[in-house]
Design goal:
about 325 residues; alpha/beta; Rossmann fold; nine-stranded mixed beta sheet; 11 helices; globular
């Protein structure tokens, strides 16, 4: 099927398919305007998430009006299932999947499309890992990292002082004192020189709790109930299957992710890069983005002060503006 046959009467692309890659059936959903020949392959967070969880609200509508968004469900997550062994659930295997998806997109929509790679949270780690392979980087026009967890040991070390500092501000202001007292007490008791796996889990849990306590963070007013979860009931895969598979994928990748540090290799990513960070992201603190932008040859950092870990849903217009401006300059 040619790209022309995939266009709706409005000229918008609406195309979804499964791509079989070594036993895994990867779900790919392409939506948006192909007029400029710009495609953005999104690597979702998690592990255990799905691409469709990002196809929501203002930010995706804005982006799809000018580019084609590719919502990929990674191996063993969302609608992507299949028959493969647990030994194949590794970062390197996921990187190979990304490379095959890129090759498939260019075969399906044209070798001359401008393809950008975008990763959020865990997707930032996966995207950076993929771009460290020259053959993958050669196929990409630009890299967009949104609160990307490309160095988990380091982000944990950044999270502790951030939790303590913000906790002190909140306690002095008398806001949510019981919750913040618990968070600060935990953070002050962590030995940064000897972080354990249990520490990492607790840091992540308290980081999400802290974000929920920040009163200036807002969510996209245009997100309906259907947007925030009801869409899952229309999924081509059962919720039980997707939920179980995603949880197992998370467990299989957890130890490798917790030990992965790509900071020292970021200088090898020399495609134009846009780093977008929420100023109140305690999960992946902005300090990680500030460090990253100094290491990549052609990178810029945008910090959104009214956002947490998911700025695309906190300040959707600001995220869309930044992404579209970045694309227009490249």
């Amino acid at each position: 099927m040619t790209p022309l046959l995939l266009l709706s009467c409005t000229g918008m692309l609406d195309d979804s398919f499964f791509l079989r890659v070594d036993g895994a059936d990867l779900f790919v959903d392409a939506e948006g305007s192909p007029e400029q020949g710009v495609f953005v392959l999104l690597l979702h967070g998690g592990p255990g998430g799905s691409g469709q969880a990002y196809n929501l609200g203002t930010w995706s509508e804005r982006l799809e009006s000018e580019v084609v968004m590719i919502y990929l469900d990674q191996r063993g997550q969302g609608n992507s299932q299949g028959h493969y062994s647990s030994e194949e659930v590794t970062i390197s295997r996921m990187v190979e999947d990304v490379a095959v998806v890129i090759e498939s997109l260019k075969a399906r929509y044209g070798a001359d499309i401008d393809l950008y790679l975008m990763g959020h949270s865990w997707g930032g780690l996966l995207g950076c890992s993929a771009l460290l392979h020259p053959e993958v980087q050669a196929e990409i026009v630009g890299w967009i990292e949104i609160d990307g967890a490309h160095d988990v040991p380091q982000l944990n070390r950044y999270a502790i002082p951030m939790l303590i500092a913000q906790g002190q501000v909140e306690l002095e202001a008398g806001r949510n004192t019981a919750e913040w007292s618990e968070i600060v007490s935990f953070a002050e008791g962590v030995d940064l020189a000897r972080l354990t796996a249990d520490d990492s889990l607790s840091i992540n849990r308290y980081a999400f709790q802290a974000e929920r306590l920040i009163e200036t963070i807002r969510w996209d007013a245009e997100l309906s109930f259907w947007d925030q979860g009801g869409y899952l009931f229309a999924s081509p895969e059962s919720l039980l299957t997707a939920g179980w598979s995603g949880a197992q994928t998370n467990l299989l990748l957890d130890r490798e992710i917790e030990q992965t540090s790509l900071t020292g290799q970021l200088g090898e990513i020399d495609v134009p890069s846009l780093l977008i960070w929420g100023g109140y992201d305690f999960v992946v603190p902005v300090a990680l983005g500030e460090d990253a932008v100094t290491r990549q040859p052609d990178a810029e950092l945008v910090v959104l002060e009214a956002s947490g870990h998911s700025p695309m849903f906190n300040e959707p217009h600001a995220v869309a503006d930044s992404v579209l401006s970045f694309i227009s300059q490249n």
